[in-house]
Amino acid sequence: MPVLDFGDALNLALREEMRRDPRVYCIGEDIVLGVPFGVTKGLAEEFGPARVRNAPISEAAIVGSAMGAAITGLVPVVDMHFADFVTCAMDEVANQIAKSRYMFGGQISCPLTLRMPYGIGKSAGGHHSNSVEAWFVNIPGLKVCIPSTPADARGLLKTAIRDPDPVLIFEHRGLYRVTGEVPEAETLVPLGLADVKRRGIDVTVIATARMVGESLAAADRLAGEGISVEVVDPRSLVPLDREGLAASVRKTHRVVIAEEGPMRGSVGAWLAWVIMEACFDDLDAPIARVAGPNIPIPFSPPLEAFATPGAADVVDAIRRVVK
């Protein structure tokens, strides 16, 4: 099985989908050169300027034009550059794209994919580093996925492009150079299907994106203490594999939820409620959470490191729930 990094797996997904369907095109700022993370590098040479389009620095114009293209028969893939910049296009995303099928009585489709590079890293500061996926989980009409491995990144992006409705795919910047095996054959990852990244019997860690790797590192560390940790990756937040998460909790009876975003009003808060609703009688301890602080991400490297949750935080949370 070939080994690719996360960014190259996304590039492969784009190439495969653009070869499969001539309606698929990419649009964003400086994407012809593959800026800033190399995901679109080389696509312009293969598919030409009509299908790999540099856009002016106007997120509202980029997303608005993509919506128009989507509802009239094309399949746009928008590169948001940094997910924080989506605030400049929130009316298009939250008030137009998300409601398109509902407002037209189900008579139109809006097959639009928004690629959302996000997350802490490299001292990029408060305008480039935040985890904003919770905003969009709260908007009816949008699907939201959040891969943690190269194979999942490729499979989820391909699924998103083929979906008849708008899908946001959150790509953690810290994962772009992480490597992993990717199936040689074309593989789609269904939305709404969680994946057990490590099996265990003492506690379930539900983790997203970069925190999946941190949780696996925590599980390795605790295995030496005789604590068996199961790590479950939801992979998509809308739709959510509620039964998959509940099945793990019913086996281990203890839960830690790990995410990078700020704890207040977060995806983790919602996941905790989902588990409480489905598994209250199965829980032997209160649910513990690991998340970022409720602050803008600092420029300062030491302060940024202080604001970044990691494996040590997951270890501490697991010890609290299994004691």
Task: Walk me through the topology.
Elements: E1 3-5, H1 6-20, E2 24-28, H2 43-47, E3 52-54, H3 59-71, E4 75-79, H4 90-97, H5 100-103, E5 113-118, H6 133-137, E6 143-145, H7 150-162, E7 167-172, E8 179-181, E9 195-198, E10 203-207, H8 210-223, E11 229-233, E12 236-238, H9 242-252, E13 255-262, H10 267-279, E14 288-292, H11 301-306, H12 311-322
Parallel strand pairs: 2-3, 2-4, 4-5, 5-7, 6-7, 10-11, 10-13, 13-14
Antiparallel strand pairs: 1-8, 6-12, 9-11
Helix pairs in contact: 1-7, 3-4, 8-12, 9-10
Describe the protein's architecture and organization.
The structure is a single chain. This protein has twelve helices and 14 strands. The chain has 323 residues and is of the alpha/beta class. Strand 10, helix 8 and strand 11 (229-233) form a beta-alpha-beta unit. Helix 1 runs parallel beside helix 7 (150-162), helix 8 (210-223) crosses helix 12 (311-322) and helix 9 (242-252) crosses helix 10 (267-279). It starts with a strand and ends with a helix. The mean pLDDT is 96.
